[in-house]
Design a protein that fits this description.
The protein has 555 residues and is mainly beta. The protein folds into two domains: 240 residues, no CATH class; 246 residues, no CATH class. Helices cover 13% and strands 34% of the residues. It has nine helices and 30 strands. An eight-stranded antiparallel beta sheet has the order 23-26-19-1-30-22-25-24. Strands 2, 3, 8, 9, 13, 14 and 17 form a seven-stranded antiparallel beta sheet that branches. It has a five-stranded antiparallel beta sheet with strand order 4-16-15-5-12, covered by helices on one side. A hairpin with a 5-residue loop joins strand 20 and strand 21. The radius of gyration is 29 Å and the shape is elongated. The two termini are 32 Å apart.
Length: 555
């Protein structure tokens, strides 16, 4: 009995220490009450108004990742994602010798892989599973790569060259109209053009020892690998070296203005879409030329091998086209701004040129309010629910232990859709992060989708169906501040899908409205969408969007 009692005391003490360490910013409300022992733990739900807000055309230049392909969603229509990028010289080239001959021109773009699903075969080769690929497996498309004729400026002349030049998601026609006429990936192998598909096969490299002649085989992650027209690059690149076109990047980017990737449907195939690693993409030109040397009056000519690498390191833009004729009519027919009074029963979140949800906490019954000093005033924009938390009738202050927003997925409507792995909640009114996001330092820079785990927003799956059920976001500090600081503003919140939870910067929309002028860049990069239940009274109570607050109150 003595040992058991001692164990309980030690366990209780460790538990208290652990719980205290879990919240480094425990800015509790009514902290002067912590000396009391008579507390009652409560949970209470509060009304939330949520409504849809379309973004319209969005800025899409110089994103960290870009989509390529065709993706059809039964809820959000069909999206075709093309891509344009400048090329930069890995090393300047100022001269070429006589009789140059191009051996190969190979374009490579690595794919992202899901490392958790990589398996090693008995022969030492790995089997990879592609990450961020959506649609039927190995669906074929027509892929065309052209030299771009559209010069992408660094700075905007309309702003006195003081601001970055912006390019937008709806500019595909501009780049398509200015492309050079020759298709560069014109190999007789149809898998590189007319019947292209995203292949997960490991990259295989064979090297031979120059002395022992022993061959060694190594494997790497899969990548797009296209053979480009050698004659074209002989004329456009090699023959331009001696005229100074490759002497530096400023000259080169104006001379060779980049690559334009265009996808179209192949007969009988719906296509699919992937987010490849364009930032690591490059063109490798291997050629040989004469090397003339003179020794002792004897002139010798030998052939030497040379390599030029052109990297996809310049300005780039995602070019998105949406088609709602066959699918996504419900989304397409939504008003640009939803019901701001009672909220919408369903919230449509869509990345890219898409939509977000505007969230207003607490019921919108603004009939009374108080100043920070506690003086009763006329309606001041503070809801009764928030007002009662700030000034409880019994005068007993609250200690907010946790506050969450739980968004339930419309599982029936999303049954055949691909669900985003993460959503992001932010201060929509001021276009900045919430304090709960800022203080969460659980960043994982190796995976942009897995940071900020305490703040939340991860997809929660149903244990039975294995499909998405909900997203939960922790806003404890935000609620504490609203209640404790009586003059704080109950700002509107914005909810979007995100490709990168670490990114909190925003991009402009092309036609700014009174409601939306910018959207988080993580949403612009994500090609997916989801449908959530709102806080409208027509939504079943168990699926309705609510604010859940767990608090401690003295007896």
């Amino acid at each position: 009995m003595i040992n058991n009692s001692l164990f309980k005391k030690v366990f209780l003490g460790l538990t208290v220490v652990f719980m205290a360490s879990c919240d480094k910013d425990f800015n509790e409300i009514g902290g002067d009450l912590l000396g009391d022992n008579n507390f009652e733990l409560n949970k209470q739900s509060f009304g939330v108004t949520g409504y849809n807000q379309k973004t319209g055309v969005v800025q899409t230049n110089n994103l960290d990742v870009n989509a390529l392909g065709i993706y059809n969603s039964s809820n959000f229509g069909e999206t075709t994602a093309n891509f344009n990028t400048q090329l930069t010289l890995a090393t300047a080239v100022t001269s070429v010798s006589t009789n140059p001959y191009v051996e190969s021109v190979i374009l490579t773009v690595p794919y992202f892989v899901d490392n958790s699903q990589t398996k090693n075969n008995t022969n030492g080769s790995p089997t990879y599973v592609l990450d961020s690929i959506y649609g039927p497996e190995k669906a074929k498309m027509k892929l065309s790569v052209y030299e771009s004729g559209f010069f992408m400026r660094d700075a905007d002349p309309n702003g006195g060259f003081q601001q970055q030049q912006r390019y937008f998601s709806d500019q595909n026609a501009d780049f398509d109209n200015f492309k050079k006429p020759n298709r560069l990936n014109d190999s007789s192998d149809k898998s590189q053009n007319d019947e292209f598909f995203f292949d997960a096969t490991a990259k295989k490299t064979i090297t031979k020892d120059t002395v022992t002649k022993v061959e060694t085989t190594t494997y790497g992650p899969p990548e797009m690998q296209l053979n480009l027209n050698k004659s074209y690059f002989k004329t456009r690149i090699i023959d331009a070296i001696n005229s100074g076109k490759l002497a530096n990047n400023d000259v080169f980017k104006n001379y060779f203005r980049g690559l334009y990737f265009k996808v179209e449907k192949a007969a009988g195939s719906p296509g699919n879409l992937i987010i490849p690693n364009f930032k690591k993409g490059k063109i490798t030109i291997k050629y040989n030329e004469d090397l003339v040397t003179t020794t002792g009056g004897v002139t010798t000519t030998t052939r030497v091998k040379k390599t030029i690498e052109l990297e996809m390191g310049g300005n780039s833009v995602s070019l998105l086209s949406n088609d709602f004729s066959a699918s996504g009519s419900a989304y397409n027919n939504l008003p640009f701004t939803g019901n701001t009074t009672t909220g919408d029963d369903k919230l449509f979140l869509r990345g890219g040129e898409g939509s977000l949800a505007v969230i207003e906490l607490f019921d919108k019954t603004d009939v009374k309010g108080y100043t920070a000093a506690g003086t009763l005033t006329s309606a001041n924009g503070i809801s009764d629910q928030l007002d009662d938390l700030r000034f409880p009738a019994d005068g007993k202050k609250l200690l907010v232990n946790e506050a969450n927003l739980v968004f339930h997925i419309d599982a029936a409507t999303m049954a055949s859709g691909v669900e985003p792995q993460r959503v992001y909640l932010y201060d929509f009114t001021n276009n900045r992060v919430l304090f709960d996001y800022a203080v969460d330092d659980t960043d994982n820079t190796l995976d942009a989708k897995k940071g900020k785990v305490i703040y939340g927003g991860q997809l929660v799956k149903n244990a039975t169906t294995k499909r998405g059920a909900s997203y939960k976001i922790r806003i404890t500090n935000h609620i504490r501040n609203l209640i404790n600081n009586k003059d704080s503003t109950n700002v509107k919140l914005g909810l979007v899908v995100t490709e990168d939870i670490i990114k909190s910067t925003s991009y402009k929309v092309k036609s700014a409205s009174s409601f939306v002028r910018e959207v988080p860049v993580g949403s612009v990069m994500n090609p997916l969408g989801t449908i959530l239940f709102g806080g409208n009274s027509s939504v079943p109570a168990d699926k309705r969007l609510k604010l859940e607050i767990y608090f401690t109150k003295p007896n």
